[in-house]
Hints:
Elements: E1 20-26, E2 46-51, H1 72-75, H2 87-90, E3 98-101, H3 104-109, H4 114-118, E4 139-151, E5 157-162, E6 172-177, H5 188-202, E7 212-228, H6 241-244, E8 251-261
Parallel strand pairs: 3-4, 6-8
Antiparallel strand pairs: 1-2, 2-7, 4-5, 4-7, 5-6, 7-8
Amino acid sequence: MAHAPQGTARRHGLPDPSSVVATAALKPARAPTTAAAGATVGGGAYRILRTRELDPYDPQMTDAQIPAIGALAAAVSGDNFQGTARKAAKLSFAGAATENFPDVQTLIASLPEEQKMINHSPLITTDANSDRVAEEKRNVHLRAFIYAASREADNDFHLIVGRDPSLSPPMYMTMELSGLPPHSSASFGQLNTARDAYKAFFSDGLPGPSYDFYDPPVPIDVEGSLFFDMTHAHGGRPGPASLRNDMPVIWEVHPIRKIVFEP
């Protein structure tokens, strides 16, 4: 695996250069389009920066255990959801009108305080049948950017999504493409379509268990339901080390019901 040059310039949203174990070009296949005046787009090509950064609660990996870029599409079998924690909420959508937000920061500002959710009455459990509480029964839509991503053991794609890189202060939150429910589930069609869109864009550059970062970050139009990740209410908070300090909440958009790349 090739290491990043030591002189790699850093902007907000890039990993610590010492954590990068490999790089590769990501050139998604796309139909010819004309960008609207003033639109912020990725310029048609991105770099994947594969790192050794993990969520703090994940077991450590050696560099030899981190898959090579391009090796994952064939190595991972199946897309079905393999987890149990709050499965009912993770695999369904809120029954609510969609709220539009201009920015990740404004979405985060609209969220209830975490301590209120941790002490929620009734208590939010992590049981498989734990469905959404009232505060989570919201659907949201916004323009944002994917800065990093990993694939979790439950088959969710864990996206670290943030503000336009030209804006300050930087701010990120988690949004997840869930592993798939049974075909008979009411949510299967939309979850499968969103997941297929993600897999088509990244093709053989899909992330693995450690975080991939993207340079520049990938612009998206995203829609999904709000979710409070009670699993991480105590102890280590999710996210790669390079971005975690700018991830102020453990609220998520989970699951994503629609994602459009380079809108």
